[in-house]
Structure formats: C-alpha cells, structure tokens
Amino acid sequence: MTAVLVSGDDFIAPELFSAALSESLPSAGLSFRTLRTRWPNEPFGPVGADGHGNGGVKEASGTEEQVLEALGDASVALTQMAPFTSRVIHESPHLKFIGVARGGPVNVDLAAATAAGIPVTFTPGRNAAAAAEFTIGLMLAAMRHLTFADAALKEGTWRGDYYAYENAGLELDGAAVGLVGYGAIGSIVARVLRAFGAHVLVSDPYTDPARARADGVELTSLDDLLRRSSVVSLHARVTPETRHLLNAGNLALLPEGAVLVNSARGELLDYAPLPGLLESGRLGALALDVYDIEPPPADWPLHKAPMSSPRHIWRDPPGRPPTGPPGSPLPRPPASYAANRCGTWPIRRC
User: Fold this and answer.
1) Considering only Cβ atoms within 10 Å of each terminal Cβ, which end of the chain, N or C, has fewer?
2) Strands 348-349 and 218-219, sheet pairing
3) Which DSSP string corresponds to 313-346?
4) pLDDT value of position 345
5) Locate the D-isomer specific 2-hydroxyacid dehydrogenase NAD-binding domain: which residues (predicted)?
6) How far is CA 37 from CA 97, 106, 142, 248, 287, in A?
7) Cross-strand partners of 342
8) Helices 184-196 and 128-143, axial angle in degrees (round to 10)
9) Upstream peptide bond of 40 is cis (omega within 30 degrees of 0)
10) What is the pTM of this model?
11) Cα–Cα dist 77/337, whole Å
C-alpha cells in the first residue's frame, strides 16, 4: 500500500487529485491523506525562510506544520501550493516523490529535495492558454479604456470624451506589440495577436531564431522592442537577471502613450517610476495582474490608474483537468511512481 498526500486548495480540491489517481491506477493499492489550504481566498506568500532567504519557499499556501502533520508516513506528495521547505523535507524521512501541479515548483526547496534524493516534477504550460487569453483581455481593456468607461456608466456618467480622437485608444490591427519572454504563455499570446493583425516583436535570449521566423514574430533586443512597441507585455520568468527587467532607465525608451501589461510576475517590473510615467503621458495605459506588494495596500498610488485584477490569470476554465492536457488530469511521472513503474530522476517536466 502506497500512502499519498494529496494537497489541494480552494481552487483545486484535493479530491480532484485522489479521484484522478484512483482512476488512472485502479490496482496500485493507494491510500490517501488530504490537506486543503486556503489559496486563493487567502494570498500565497513566502513560507519557512530563516530571515535570510535560506530554507524557505515562495508563492506557497499553508504552513510547514500543516504539511508535516498531513504527510505522516506518506511516500508520495501531490500538491499545487503547499510549502515543501527544507524543514518539511528533512523531517519527512518517508517522502520519496513530490509532484507539483503548476508551471514551476517554486513552493518546493529544490536544493533540499535534491540533497535528499527526492525527485520533483511539475507541469509547465498547464494553464498557458487560460493565462494567454486573460493577458489579451487585460491588454484590450487597457488599450480601449473599458474599465474606466464601465465604472463611469455604472455611476451614471456618460463618458463621451472617450470617443474623442485623443482618448480613443489603440487598435491591435497594425500595431507593434512587444513580448518580453516567449515561453508557453508568450507564444500563445503572439499567435492571438497575429490573428488580430498585430506585428509581434519578441525579446527572449533563449528563443531559437528559427522558431521565431516560423512563428511569424520578429526577434530583437529588449531596448529595440521598447523603442518600437505601442504595447509591451511581460512574459519572462523571474530570475536574478530578470528582476526589475523593466525599470526607470529602459521604460523611458517607450513611445509616447504606450500601453504596458504585466501578468507574469511583479518582480519583473520596477513599479516606482510608473506613476510618473502615467502622469507624463509616456505610458498611456497600464494593465496589471501582479504587483510589487501583494495584495497592494489601500494607499497604493496606482490603484486608480491601471486596469488591474487580483492574480486571476491562472484560472483555468471550468471542466479543465487540474494538470496536463484535457483527458490527462495528472502528469504521468507521479502516477507511474505511485504504481512502482518508474525509476528515480531529478527535477522533471511533465
């Protein structure tokens, strides 16, 4: 009998994991322990750091104590948001495998897992289509002032001035749109933008030029992209080299009235210069789903300026399996491991 911890939350319930595993491996002899954390009703955040960033994880929901109590003698753990810190890993001698049902295993201390010989899998691109569609929605809302016009009409004000030439906003057809990062989400955004008739510029040092040509996008430097793009959308991963990738220095390269969209990670963008750029007109509109402080405080200076939403980009549509492509609700490595049909491996993409 293999004991499995299925750790879900208020978005992906643990019962979805256990039901999918039971269906995939009906004769594997699995027993389930469950944990349910409060994300997204309570924001995720860092868990377990010692004050110097050591041993902890980021973007996690729940506590180390909750995970340790729920794990017990389980050898397999499937989770979305629960924190698997160095403490959790070191105090769980029976744990042999961690599967993370999200695009990156940021809630797992990978160094501690590697040292303990525990393989970790994750599911890059799981919700890429949903994230790309949400990004396009943010972009259009910001470009055409949709939220401001909607709010005014709800208050009884008919904002005819938004129809004036100087306030009408941009069109995607014929516009140059720059994508900073060209992974699973960015490439889908590019495909949709091209269908709108946009010319898509891409800045990503890891993108193969042959792929860019095949996709019909123009690969260029970040500075050139910023100079030429009427709309810029962030899609890079956060690393030490990408923190504040857009900042006061290079944001000044944007053409007058440009639209900036950040639905990736708050750390990619320096938020300090944004109020001034909006006031000066360098930025014509701003659309955000991520922030430098989450949730942003009530006196945050950008509350009234952008089209903003509270980290809703990850939402998959109803009926979409919690991980993997439609019809395959769990990544194969965790299921195979639980059935004793898989060897060991380090971090692996499912």
Assistant:
1) N
2) unpaired
3) TTPPPTT--SSSSTT--S-HHHHHHHTT-----S
4) 36
5) 136-306
6) 20, 16, 33, 38, 29
7) none
8) 50
9) yes
10) 0.79
11) 11
**Could you say which architecture CATH assigns to the domain 2-124+325-349?**
3-Layer(aba) Sandwich (3.40)
* Cβ contact 153:242 at 8 Å: no
Strands in 213-291 per DSSP E: 218-219, 231-234, 258-262, 283-288
In which residue are the tokens 């797992």 written?
108
Query: Is 128-308 in CATH node 3.40.50.720?
Result: yes
Q: Which of 253, 256, 234, 233 is nearest to 140 (CA)?
A: 233
Residues for the chain: how many in total?
350
CB 203, CB 221: distance < 8 Å: yes
The percentage of the chain sitting over the pLDDT mark of 70, rounded to a whole number, equals 85
Mean pLDDT of all residues in 60-86: 96
Give per-residue pLDDT as tens, 106-143: 999 999 999 999 999 999 888 899 999 999 999 999 99
Mean pLDDT of the chain: 86
Rounded CA gap, 268 and 295, in Å? 16
- Which tens digits make up the pLDDT trace of 288-330? 999 888 888 888 888 766 665 554 454 554 444 444 444 344 5
Q: What is the CB-side half-sphere exposure of residue 334 using CA atoms within 13 A?
A: 34
Q: What is the CA radius of gyration of the chain?
A: 22
Task: Scan for tokens 């930025």, then name that residue.
Answer: 283
Strands 45-47 and 57-60: antiparallel
Q: Where in the chain is the domain with CATH 3.40.50.720?
A: 2-124+325-349, 128-308
